[in-house]
Design goal:
21% of the residues lie in helices and 26% in strands. It is an alpha+beta fold. The chain folds into two domains: 78 residues, no CATH class; 52 residues, Orthogonal Bundle (DNA Binding (I), subunit A), CATH 1.10.30.
């Protein structure tokens, strides 16, 4: 099923919806199509939208992304943050080990291959002489995660609307 990126009136990414719902919103005048899939024509005067923008601004409450293994892997691009390995042998590493007071937080967990995780052991990256490729941070939003995944799988027209993609 084709998905459509929904932008707020201010051009901020707001949601991802189905092509049917997006088409209805365009037909009712609630949204305008910004990008279209030229290979799919719904009727003579209507192309299948891939990015739409709402005509009126919608205020959305902030929703925090939960700290899960899957989300940490996606944030780190499914690669070891110490050596760059990409594959099945990935695990979660605590930058400051739990035994030394490091907790489970976005800023203290990162993706590591099993080899690097064992090599680092109960030490900090500095003590183990293993610098991180990127400092772990809390992701911006759930929408950013899904939009980034869509862009990587070929939805290039979304990239200019999703900051940092």
């Amino acid at each position: 099923m084709r998905q459509v990126l929904v932008l707020n009136a201010s051009y901020e990414p707001l949601n991802i919806t189905t092509w049917r719902r997006a088409t209805v919103m365009v037909l009712k005048g609630k949204a305008e199509g910004l990008e279209h899939d030229s290979s799919r024509i719904l009727r003579d005067d209507l192309l299948l939208p891939s990015v739409i923008r709402l005509r009126q601004f919608v205020r959305v409450p902030f929703k925090e992304l939960p700290l899960t293994r899957r989300n940490v892997f996606q944030r780190d691009g499914h690669s070891c943050q110490y050596c760059g390995y990409q594959g099945d042998q990935l695990s979660i590493d605590h930058v400051i080990p739990r035994s030394r007071g490091g907790g489970d937080s976005w800023e203290n967990v990162t993706t590591a291959c099993l080899r690097c995780n064992v090599r680092k052991g109960n030490r900090t990256p500095r003590e183990a002489s293993m610098p991180l490729a990127r400092v772990p941070r809390r992701p911006v939003s759930t929408l950013y995660f899904e939009a980034t995944r869509q862009i990587r799988s070929g939805r290039r027209e979304w990239a200019k609307y999703v900051i940092g993609a």
